[in-house]
């Protein structure tokens, strides 16, 4: 019976070891799953979310088939908005099989067909990108991340649903022809290790049973009977004993053949046991870590509710945009290049900087405007929007100069293919407290300029504050604004007093203030109020009062006007960019001044 058990143990051990090894060899699943698609007769291709998430896990994308390969990812709606009426190849997961399908899509034709079916006649397609001349997708502010390579590009992402890829060459040449997606699969064999080790253990038990069976068989034999002695045989002559051979003469290592023979099975069994030490050979004791991504992983930007539009940008996206703007601004400031500056500035911010370029061109001794900090963003408040134009507000603090006032930027993107432009660049007050706002992953709704849900409509804030600067406490709007902490109002009053005191008796001076031409921007805060950015223009008119008298502008006014003396008089116009917190209607709070930026924008001789 012991021999039977030993044989069963040996057979079972061999089966377990063979099965364990087979799981890591002939039965082993592939380490990844790959799907591919081809792109033909199109300058662009879009890899839809259904294709990217056809298999769970991180996506490794390989694109080839053109001299230049461009790849970017962004929200699906943003990708489609950038394409506008451009034909593209749509790559998505096939409905019936785990495969990719490629279909040429022409939005312009589809729009015409839809309009024709509704009205009976063809109508021109309305596209946000129709009027744009930009065809190269590289560098667009819409992309969360982009990549460029020659001939072949491979990268690993882990993007959620709602994100699509755009594939192109340079926007003019045909898109790369080959797109391949692969996903890592879990091909671990958690029972391979236990089977191999268990088989070795069962084999060892079988060996022990076999040895015990031999010992029992030997002991079970009874004593031999005494047989009768026969006649004594004659003694044979002694044969010479051969000379003993040392073990070292058999093999050079000094080890006996018997010892090596015994060691070989031990080495084989040890190798089989140690081969099960890999984590893939054993059941997982804890949940596996999420697969790492080779690139920054975007978060789901769909928002907490489906009926709420997504934020215009993500924080990493805005950090990249601001870094590009800061680099471009530094170059433009150093070279007084108005053309470069106009690619990233607009409105009051552009007007102020262009005037400074003109002033510094005439008088290099006049200081440049403060540079744009490149430090991480302290606050990001994007507009909730899936359409255009889009607005984003952010606050930066220069880490190299903590004593400098934080800078608030208001950026605007007019259309999908346009870049974000700096519309307002405002230094915050030292004691200013920015009200609590929604997190960047949610964003804030834009407030209509004529909204009546605030203490004062956004489009009335500039005129009301200009009246306060002109009339002071006599202004009907004086009680609406918080005077404490408003250093700008104090500076304006002190400047007026100083200018009047320094004016000769042969001249007179008049001051004016009015709402500027800049667009009013208002974003909602958590207290049902709004952060409002507006522009003002302040004028300073100096005239001679005596016949034959003249006035002579100085400093920036002289450099900007090019006039050294005039008998007619001169008007200097200052552009103000102001930031306020306007509370909700019915609130007991006042409108709080948050920051300002002022600069001379015009200096002209009176007619």
Strand count, sense and barrel status of the largest sheet are: 9 strands, antiparallel
Tell me the distance between the termini.
125 Å
What share of the residues does DSSP label as strand, in percent? Answer: 15-25%
The helix tally amounts to 12
Helix-strand sequence: HEEHEHEEHEEEHHHHHEEEEHHEEEHEE
Number of domains: 3
Low-confidence residue ranges: 121-131, 252-268, 272-276, 287-297, 300-305
Mean pLDDT over the full residue set: 84
The helix fraction, in percent, is 25-40%
SS content category: alpha+beta
Q: What's the alpha carbon Rg, rounded to whole Å? A: 41 Å
Gross geometry: elongated
DSSP strand tally = 17
What does this structure look like?
The protein is α+β, with helices and mostly antiparallel strands. The chain has 3 domains: 1-29 and 187-216 and 269-283, no CATH class; 32-184, no CATH class; 315-605, no CATH class. 28% of the residues lie in helices and 25% in strands. It is built from 12 helices and 17 strands. It has helices spanning 2-23, 49-52, 76-83, 107-119, 192-220, 257-274, 315-335, 338-341, 347-362, 458-471, 487-501, 555-561; strands at residues 32-38, 44-47, 59-75, 88-93, 100-105, 145-157, 163-168, 178-184, 377-382, 390-396, 407-413, 421-428, 507-515, 521-524, 530-544, 570-582, 592-605. β14 and β15 form a beta hairpin. α9 (347-362) crosses α12. The termini are far apart.
């Amino acid at each position: 019976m012991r021999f039977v058990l030993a044989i069963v143990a040996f057979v079972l051990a061999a089966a377990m070891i063979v099965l364990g090894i087979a799981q890591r060899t002939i039965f082993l699943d592939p380490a990844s799953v790959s799907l591919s698609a081809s792109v033909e007769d199109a300058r662009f291709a879009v890899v839809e979310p259904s294709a990217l998430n056809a298999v769970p896990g991180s996506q490794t994308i390989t694109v080839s088939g053109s001299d230049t390969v461009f790849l970017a990812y962004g929200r699906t709606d943003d990708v489609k908005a950038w394409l506008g009426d451009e034909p593209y190849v749509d790559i998505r997961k096939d409905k019936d099989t785990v495969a990719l399908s490629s279909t040429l899509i022409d939005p312009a034709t589809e729009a015409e067909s839809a309009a024709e079916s509704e009205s009976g006649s063809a109508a021109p397609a309305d596209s946000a990108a129709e009027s744009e001349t930009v065809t190269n997708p590289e560098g667009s502010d819409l992309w969360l991340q982009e990549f460029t390579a020659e001939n072949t590009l491979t990268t690993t992402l882990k993007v959620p649903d709602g994100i699509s890829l755009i594939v192109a060459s340079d926007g003019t040449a045909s898109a790369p022809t080959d797109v391949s997606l692969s996903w890592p699969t879990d091909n671990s064999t958690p029972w391979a290790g236990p089977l191999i080790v268990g088989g070795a253990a069962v084999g060892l038990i079988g060996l022990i049973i076999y040895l015990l069976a031999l010992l029992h068989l030997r002991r079970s034999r009874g004593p031999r009977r005494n047989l009768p002695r026969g006649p004594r045989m004659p003694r044979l002559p002694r044969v010479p004993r051969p000379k003993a051979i040392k073990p070292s003469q058999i093999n050079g290592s000094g080890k006996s053949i018997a010892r090596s023979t015994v060691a070989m099975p031990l080495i084989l069994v040890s190798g089989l046991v140690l081969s099960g030490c890999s984590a893939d050979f054993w059941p997982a004791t804890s949940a596996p870590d999420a697969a790492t991504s080779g690139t920054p992983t975007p978060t789901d930007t769909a928002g907490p509710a489906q009926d709420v539009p997504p934020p215009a940008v993500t924080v990493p996206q805005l950090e990249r945009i601001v870094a590009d703007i800061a680099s471009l601004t530094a170059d433009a400031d150093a070279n007084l290049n108005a053309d470069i500056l106009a690619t990233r500035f607009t409105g009051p911010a552009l007007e102020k900087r262009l005037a400074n370029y003109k002033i510094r061109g005439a008088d290099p001794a006049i200081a440049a405007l403060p540079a744009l900090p490149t430090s991480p963003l302290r606050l990001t408040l994007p507009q909730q929007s899936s359409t255009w134009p889009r607005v984003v507000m952010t606050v930066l603090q220069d880490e190299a100069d903590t004593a400098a006032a934080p800078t608030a930027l208001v950026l605007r993107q007019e259309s999908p293919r346009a870049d974000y432009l700096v519309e307002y660049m405002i230094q915050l007050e030292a004691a200013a407290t920015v009200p609590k706002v929604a997190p960047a992953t949610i964003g804030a709704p834009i407030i209509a300029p004529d909204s009546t849900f605030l203490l004062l409509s956004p489009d009335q804030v500039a005129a009301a504050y200009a009246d306060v600067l002109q009339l002071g406490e006599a202004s009907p709007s004086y009680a609406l604004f918080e005077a404490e902490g408003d250093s700008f109002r104090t500076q304006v009053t002190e400047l007026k007093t100083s200018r009047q005191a320094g004016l000769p008796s042969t001249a007179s001076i008049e001051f004016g203030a009015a709402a500027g031409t800049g667009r009013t921007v208002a974003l909602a805060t958590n207290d049902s109020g709004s952060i409002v950015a507006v522009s003002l223009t302040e004028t300073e008119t100096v005239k001679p009062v005596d016949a034959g008298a003249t006035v002579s502008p100085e400093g920036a006014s002289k450099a900007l006007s090019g006039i050294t003396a005039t008998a007619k008089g001169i008007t200097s116009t200052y552009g103000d960019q102001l930031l306020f917190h306007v509370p909700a209607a019915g609130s007991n709070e006042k409108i709080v001044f948050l920051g300002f930026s002022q600069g001379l924008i015009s200096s002209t001789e009176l007619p």
